[in-house]
Amino acid sequence: MRIDVLTIFPDYLAPLELSLLGKARRDGLVDVRVHDLRDFTHDRHRTVDDSPLGGGAGMVMKPEPWAEALESVIAAGREELGDDAAPLIVFPNPAGAPFAQATAQSWSQRPWLLFACGRYEGIDERVYEHLAARGHELALASLGDYVLNGGEVAVLAITEAVVRLVPGVVGNAASLVEESHSDGLLEYPLYTRPATWTAPDGTVRAVPEILLSGDHARIAAWRAEQSRLRTAERRPDLLAPPAPGDAADTAPAS
Ligand SMILES: COC(=O)c1ccnc(N)c1
Asked: Within its chain, how far is the Cα of 41 from the centroid?
């Protein structure tokens, strides 16, 4: 998988070099390239933003640097991936569709993701129009109903959620199967040794007896029940039928 990231804060993406992701890159499972949007400006101040037309607070990211940067990054990617290669262009955006585990599953099977990190109040709408008109596939993805100062933090989260599902990245693929949301439910409670623990306040806490029974069928059934109970208690919405268009996996509505 190839991942390109366009940002005015390349250093924000440094954590992509670390740990699991760093190893995946060294193992050649993921190829991550971070690009500075300001490298695609031509004025002395390397300007990427301007006041909103029509008035309003804050600044809007100008279309020229974005159009030039995206064309350049896509062309460079095609040099290596082939002329027919096409990235899914992801704009982390609070107005996007919710990024969910299903989205991560879907995107982990794509050969090329291109993340475009907006800052300030956002990106000039004509950039989206321009990309869509040129046939690119876009997705606006939201991590939840809150606002960040920029898309970079979202890219770190989305990249981790996606890349960890790429075959070979996580040593034991079985560990991906019973996680929260992997089957639409929250994960059951987890325990490890000691089987009986005396807490600092003197309370003795034992693990559920069933887990020490060695009866794997009954343990599996208990865990499935615990997942259902936990989901019903904490996230009853996950038990409701999905509404249409529930995940950030397709081009945004115009
Ligand atoms: C600038 O990006 C955001 O504020 C953002 C991106 C993705 N999800 C969010 N909830 C916010």
From this structure: 28
